Amino acid sequence: MDAEAIAAEGTPVFVYRPAQVRQRAEQLRQALEGTAHIHLALKANHHGPLVAAVRPALDGADVTSEGELRAALDAGFEPRAISLSGPAHAPELLRRAADRGHTLSLNSVDDAVPGARALLRVNPSERLQAFRSATGGVPSPFGVPEEDLDAALAILTEKNASPIGLHVHRGSQCTSAAALTRHVVSTLDLAHRAAERGLALEEVNFGGGLGVARGDMPSLDIDSFGRRAASALRRFGQAWPGVTFVIEPGRWLLAEAGVLLLRVRRRLESRGEVFVVLDGGLDCFLFATDRERDGAPYPLRNLSREGPTEAVSVVGPACTSRDSLGRHRLPRCEVGDLIAVEQAGAYALGASPHGFLGRAAPRAVLLD
Fold first, then answer.
1. Which of these, 217, 338, 218, lies nearest to 276 by C-alpha position?
2. Are 128 and 177 in contact (CB under 8 A)?
3. Phi and psi for 357 in degrees, rounded to 5?
4. Which residues pair with 171 in a beta bridge?
5. What is the pLDDT of residues 314-347, one digit of tens each?
6. What whole-number distance in Å separates Cα of residue 302 and Cα of residue 306?
7. 20 to 30 Å CA-CA from 130: which of 70, 271, 290, 333?
8. Is the pTM of this model over 0.85?
9. What CA–CA distance (Å, rounded) separates 8 from 226?
10. CA 348, 299, 303, 320 torsion-angle sign
11. Burial classification of residue 79, based on how many CB atoms lie within 10 Å of its CB (0-12 exposed, 13-18 middle, 19 or more buried)
């Protein structure tokens, strides 16, 4: 990548490598030995050109808003391969999605649409600590609590909105193959119990949550997870023939295929601390800032120079102390240097307040 040539047209700029996303999708498919469909969670990144470039490597898409739904359709995903999830959709959107043939992930019985193809999202009772950000196993607005499953199925039957499977998304940023396998197995147990109670079981969706290494978090052993999960899926398929299994990662597919390029605008010292001020920060990558990220700082590189490193506090241009990317050791940073923020392919461009302080949205380019 000729970062300087790309940055010469202006920073901040995101650079995406679609080929890397496609390779990741194929790696996951092979690890799971073809037992599951691979869907992309567009909440991680719904940038239209990127989604279109990676669509051929995927089996479907998970969307959480009308904007993400438009991005999935524009990218060429078939309507039946798109699922709509989330806790607060307008009835009109749910009805339109059902009429188009999209799969609805019912967050509660209030989301029921008679005659729709739907999965019931369940909040499992077990909390798995390896998921750094939990949406399952804790009190949350995401899904019907497992203990209320029987009552929910009965209500949906009365509403002529019986689901055809379950959706269980337990959380995010999990790099433990054992915990992810436990999630798959416990979800299958839940689906088995629901089917025995009369659920017409056609699909089991395990959500996403596959994490990437950062700081003290190890890399996910995708082959170990895939091998164990595939074994469990095959056993379940023998007991319940014809069931489709879906996994829908976002971060694991996208994060490391993106980088954010920023320029150093100021270097200054204050009471013995060196600050490096960049031309982008929370307005470009909110979840990389100190108060918003989960875990260690995102990796940074000085692309303009090498040599001995120094400890610096890296901050953005906003007039708030919240605009901080953390403490880093970098080769001495000077005004004009080009800084790369890694793992910027997920929860960055589409998850940041570009309009804050009237700042323009950053550019995005694809290298394919």
1. 338
2. no
3. 60, 25
4. 134
5. 999 999 999 999 999 999 999 999 999 999 999 9
6. 8
7. 290
8. yes
9. 42
10. positive
11. middle
